Prior knowledge:
Layout: H1 7-13, H2 24-43, H3 50-62, E1 65-66, H4 67-74, H5 78-90, E2 94-98, E3 106-110, H6 112-132, H7 138-156
Helix pairs in contact: 1-2, 2-6
Amino acid sequence: MIDECGIVALMTTFDARPDAGAACSLLIVQLARGARRRIEQAIAPTGLRPNEMLVLVHLRERGPSAQQALVGLMCVDATNLVAVLNNLEDAGLIERRRDRSDRRRAIVALAAPGEQLLADVDRAFRQIDDEIFTGLAPTDRQTLSALLAEVVRHVAAGSLQSPGENC
Length: 167
C-alpha cells in the first residue's frame, strides 16, 4: 500500500478487469497522483521541488541546454523557469553561462553536486518503482517503461496541444 489518497484509491476507483473500459489516461492520472506524492516525499530531504528535480534530470539526460529550450520542455513561463534556475544555481547544482556564439543566450549545465544529488535520488526513485510495480514481472516492467517513454515522447512532441497553446 502506497497511500490511501493515491494509488490505493486506484483499486477502488476503477474495475481491475481488462474489459472494464477504464480509459488509460484516467488510470495514468490516478497512478501519477500517488507516484507524485511518493516522489515529493523522497526528494523532500534535498529541499528541491519536483520542477527543480525535473530540470536536473533533463540536464543529465540531454546535457547542457539553452535556457529558452528549458522553458518549452518544462512547460513553464520564462519568469518561473528563472526562479527555478536561480534556486538550483544558488544551491550549486547547476551552472549558467553565456553562449559563445550568441551572448544573449544562457546555457544551463548540470554541476558536479547536481550529478551527485541525482545519483542519491535515483536510488529512492528505484525504491518507489519497486513499491508501485511490485506485482509486475521484470519483463512487464521493461515493457511498461518502454511504452510510457514512447507516450512521453509523443506528448513532448506537442501532438496533444491545442492550437495556440504553449503546453
